[in-house]
Design a protein that fits this description.
By secondary structure, the chain is an alpha+beta fold. Helix content is 33%, strand content 10%. Bound molecules: zinc ion (ZN). The site of zinc ion has 6 residues, from strand 8.
């Protein structure tokens, strides 16, 4: 009896000790792997009257078609998202010691956390609004969305009818412009971006390096046209799309419906994004025709025409 009792006490003590060790291990792990706070929302009350932007769709970049289409051509480049050419801003460089508020410099307002120009999206400027590696829109902006008929994709409500019109016109020519990725919310983009950074950090990179690495594949939130609902990735996100009849049809006809190839080949240094034959941006029919005829990318065309953006 006594022996039984003392064994039970010893067993109980062992359980307590093992539990304590487990809790300590978890605490140490958490303290080592905790992400630095990146407060994307603290500069959302911008009062800027400045500039421009664009948008996207509910696509999980962690579940891209690379899995399902891996048998296609595994040697070609596939983008998880709009793939940046170089990283000009490191959004992880937050200075937590300074109170973050938008910094105004003349007409331009800058996000102190990212160093990017904050642009506002309005009815007047949405067609030509520009977001890229140096320009972002505030997280408070949410486009009014409309569902693309017969799909689970959404675009800015001002753009959706134009996509449907283009889709139907292509269909009459025997071409199916399958919507692949449309609107993606700011928060969705943020999760993807930070998730990618976490993965890189887990591989041993510093947080700064991890965010920089993530930004090469996933545009930081507020810098993707998909977050604005102004663009559509059509059919797929493989470079081979440039050899497909759907792409040929788009290069010949998309402008009639107000869409341009936003990231053309050879303009990578200006757009900051690699050639994306699948990514078509709505700019309005008049602008689209002029931009297409000019052979310039959006940023160049705006500069050439002295259009402030
Ligand atoms: Zn895209």
């Amino acid at each position: 009896m006594n022996q039984n009792k003392s064994s039970r006490i010893v067993a109980a003590i062992l359980v307590v000790l093992v539990s304590a060790a487990a809790v300590t291990a978890v605490l140490i792990y958490n303290s080592k792997h905790r992400k630095p706070p990146v407060d994307w929302d603290k500069y959302t009350s911008s009062t800027s009257s400045a500039a421009q932007t664009d948008s996207t769709a509910p696509v999980d970049t962690t579940a891209q078609p690379s899995d399902t289409e891996a048998t296609e051509d595994t040697t070609e480049t596939k983008a998880d998202d709009d793939t940046t050419v170089s990283v000009q801003n490191d959004p992880s460089e937050n200075d937590e010691s300074t109170s973050a508020s938008a910094v105004s410099d003349g007409n331009q307002v800058t996000n102190p956390d990212t160093g990017r120009i904050l642009v506002q999206v309005t009815d007047d400027n949405y067609k030509l609004v520009v977001v890229n590696s140096t320009r972002e829109f505030p997280s408070t902006y949410e486009p009014k969305l409309a569902q693309i008929l017969g799909t689970d994709k959404y675009l800015d409500a001002r753009v959706a009818p134009h996509y449907e019109e283009m889709y139907n016109a292509a269909k009459q020519d025997g071409i199916t412009l399958t919507p692949y990725s449309a609107y993606r919310s700011y928060d969705h983009q943020k999760r993807n971006y930070e998730g990618r950074a976490s993965n890189e950090h887990a591989k041993g990179l510093s947080w700064d390096a991890a965010y920089a690495e993530a930004a090469k594949v996933i545009l930081p939130p507020g810098t993707s046209e998909h977050n604005l609902g102004l663009c559509m990735d059509i059919c797929n996100v493989y470079n081979s799309f440039a050899t497909q009849p759907e792409y040929r049809w788009l290069t010949e006809n998309a402008y009639k419906y107000g869409f341009i190839l936003r990231y053309p080949e050879g303009k990578e240094k200006i757009t900051g994004v690699v050639f994306e034959p699948w990514h078509w941006r709505y700019v309005g029919t008049e602008n689209a025709k002029a931009i297409r005829d000019s052979g310039l990318c959006l940023e160049e065309w705006l500069e050439a025409n002295n259009i402030a953006y």
